[in-house]
Amino acid sequence: MKTNIKHLNLTINNYHGNTEIVKEEIAKDSEKMKLLVETLRNIALDKFFEDEEILIPDECEKFGFVQGSYKLPDFLYFIADMLEE
Q: Where along the chain do its domains lie?
């Protein structure tokens, strides 16, 4: 799981070498990411969204998304998987 480097550098600079506090901050970020991933997966499994679709327009290719229409649950699960990597 990736940690936001900018946030990490700011955290390290603010705590002047107190490694325990830095480790706690990284753990908090990690927990937030786990919560986000779990939430996206839970929403993806909700029957309410099972027939919903998301349309990704052509100009989103610059952000790494291929133009097309996708099932919302599949898309949310895909995003969760990417965040977990």
A: 5-84
